[in-house]
Write a structure and sequence with these properties.
The radius of gyration is 27 Å and the shape is extended. The chain is mostly helical and 203 residues long. It starts with a helix and ends with a helix. The chain contains 10 helices and no strands. The longest helix has 28 residues. Helix 9 crosses helix 10. The relative contact order is 0.09.
Length: 203
């Protein structure tokens, strides 16, 4: 909201979607950093060393996530609709701030919080989610060529589908031609047709 005020961008309903998007991005990066910190502590590192090591291990992945998200919202600048354009601008700035806060602010907060309990760390190391992630990692490393081919195939199919998309702004096209609702809407938009129908009813 402050960024919008400084940039003299009016707040609108579309811009309201920026808040949940930024919350999701911030929470995702923060959770990754906290979990990596817990793993480093489980490996026996001191708190300060664990925080530094967690930031070193994750800054690249967090940066790539921020860059791809940033690119997606910057593309909103191509829209001629002012609210969407403004949401893209403010959300892109928010993504950058979220990345910086994750790397520089979250470690400071963790340095003042109590140490993670041992049972929590043990659960992270041997829990169901951890075993599933280990299985997925092993699968990706062993079948990376097959997975790359599958994703490229899906990308090609998606691109072909994108070329067949039609932008439709006519509300009437949402209804099949045989629907009574469509006929009523046509009559409302065409006063002459409505008058003829009323004249037929009078007869």
């Amino acid at each position: 909201a402050w960024g919008g005020t400084i940039a003299r961008i009016r707040w609108n309903v579309v811009g309201g979607m920026m808040v949940p998007i930024l919350i999701a991005v911030c929470i995702a990066d923060s959770v990754h950093l906290v979990l990596e910190y817990y793993h480093c502590r489980a490996d026996g590192l001191h708190r300060d060393e664990a925080l530094v090591q967690a930031a070193k291990n994750l800054w690249r992945s967090c940066l790539y996530t921020a860059m791809t998200t940033l690119a997606g919202f910057i593309s909103f600048q191509s829209s001629s609709i002012a609210p969407i354009n403004a949401m893209g601008t403010l959300t892109a700035v928010g993504v950058v701030l979220a990345f910086l806060l994750t790397l520089f602010f979250i470690p400071v907060i963790l340095s003042y919080l109590p140490e993670p309990k041992r049972k929590v760390v043990d659960h992270l190391e041997s829990g169901l989610i951890q075993r599933f992630l280990a299985f997925v990692t092993s699968l990706v490393l062993k079948r990376h060529r097959l997975l790359a081919f599958v994703f490229i195939l899906f990308a090609v199919i998606a691109f072909i589908g994108m070329t067949r998309l039609k932008i439709e702004t006519n509300f009437l096209e949402y209804f099949p031609s045989w629907e009574k609702v469509r006929g009523d809407l046509v009559d409302q938009e065409d006063p002459q047709a409505q008058h003829q129908k009323e004249a037929a009813w009078d007869l």
